[in-house]
Structure formats: C-alpha cells, structure tokens
Amino acid sequence: MLDAKLHSYIEGLILERNPLLTEMEFYAREHNVPIMELEGIETMLQLLRIQGTKKILEVGTAIGYSALRMAEALPGAQIVTIERDDERAQLAVGFIERSAYKERITLIKGDALEVEEQISGHAPFDAIFIDAAKGQYKKFFEMYSSYLSSDGMIITDNVLFKGLVAEPEIESKRIRNLVKKIDDFNKWLMKHPDYISVILPVGDGVAISKRRGESK
Ligand code: SAM
C-alpha cells in the first residue's frame, strides 16, 4: 500500500524469523500458499501483544504460519485455528508438531461455516482473526462474533485486496465479483451498529473491529 521504497525500507528493518518460520515462508512462496503479508502480520501481532491476548480463534490456517507467529508472540496464549483444505491442514499439523508451541495450538479441520459447535466449546476468544475465503467474510464475522469476549477484537485481513477495492474498472469478471464482495463487507463493517472498526492500509489491508460499548 505504501510507496515501494518505503515498503522495502520497513520490511528490511523487520528482524529475521526463526528457522522453522523462515522455512514456512519459503514453502509458501514456492507453492503459492497465501500467508499474511509481513507488515500486516507484524501490525496484528503488536496489537495482540498490547491487548495481552490469551485466546485466539483463527479462520483460515493455511500451513499454520500465522498461528505459529501468534503463538510465538504471545506466551501462554491458546490458538484455535480452522482449515478446510486437507492438504494444507496436514502440512500445518507437520509444521506445528515441529514447533515449540504444539500444546497451545488446536487445529480444527473443516469448513469454518460447519464447525461452529466445535468452536463454541473453546469460546470466549479475546481475538478472532478472519483470513479465509474473502467472499464469505460477512458470514464468518456474523457466525463467530458472538464468541468474542466483551472487550475482544476482530481482525480481518485482505480488506483492501491489493488495492483493487479502489479500482474503478476491473477486467476479470471473477475478480470484479470478489472485489464487490469485499467492498460490500467493508461498507457493512464500517456501519455495523455493534462494532467500531478501522481499516489499516498495511499489508493487504487489515480491519480492526471492537464492540462499540457505551458510545453506541
Ligand atoms: N492465516 C494464514 C497465514 O497467514 O499463515 C493464511 C490463510 S490463507 C490466506 C486462507 C486459508 O483459508 C486457505 O488455506 C483456505 O483453504 C482456507 N479457507 C478458505 N475458506 C475456508 C473456510 N470456509 N473454512 C476453513 N478454511 C477456509
């Protein structure tokens, strides 16, 4: 989102990750697995540290990269993460097993829209991180926001979708439809009567939502 020079300046200042995480970043790059962008994840982790998050629900594990980053950044925190793709879930299990955090990460295999009952047993969550099928963000938010603690936050990635939400003309019909869904979600989220949200132009665009509370 930033000017390319500034973007690489900031990325260049971010410290190297541990060897397992570096291996996962390499794997993701080589196999086109979408993991959260570096500046986006660093921003999210800092917000979680400030919050002192103890329990997180993640929708969209992929190979377990963000789950492991959260476990590393938040000592003692429990992470419940959902992945519907069998192959990715298997890879995530392998990486998590090799980490020092396997006791703190619970991977639920299945479609997030079909495993609500299993997830409810782990609630409440201090933070919910939505990073799965972009066309279904509203459904994920509606389904899982009821399991958020009263002072919790919901973090949604990819809300600016490579800047395409601000593009007036998009050739591909498939991408145009997806962009429309994200734009509709953003508008819905910003006007939500129960949540106050901000969109940060970092990484692929990260929305941070909190309950409105008294000021509603
Ligand atoms: N959070 C991961 C990270 O940063 O390391 C990246 C997640 S990737 C962007 C999105 C993942 O969500 C994909 O692996 C996809 O299979 C999964 N996914 C998409 N829709 C889903 C759904 N309805 N339920 C569960 N997983 C879903």
Précis, in short:
The protein is an alpha/beta fold.
Features of this protein?
216 residues, alpha/beta, Rossmann fold, 7-stranded mixed sheet, 8 helices, globular, binds S-adenosylmethionine
Description of the structure:
With 216 residues, the chain is an alpha/beta fold. The chain has a single domain (4-211), classed as Vaccinia Virus protein VP39 (Rossmann fold). 41% of the residues lie in helices and 20% in strands. It has 8 helices and 7 strands; from the N terminus they run αααβαβαβαβαβαββ. Strands 3-2-1-4-5-7-6 form a 7-stranded mixed beta sheet, sandwiched between helices. Strand 6 and strand 7 form a beta hairpin. Helix 3 packs parallel to helix 4. The chain is globular. The two termini are 31 Å apart. S-adenosylmethionine is lined by residues 34-36, 60, 62, 65-66, 82-85, 88, 111-113, 131-133, 136.
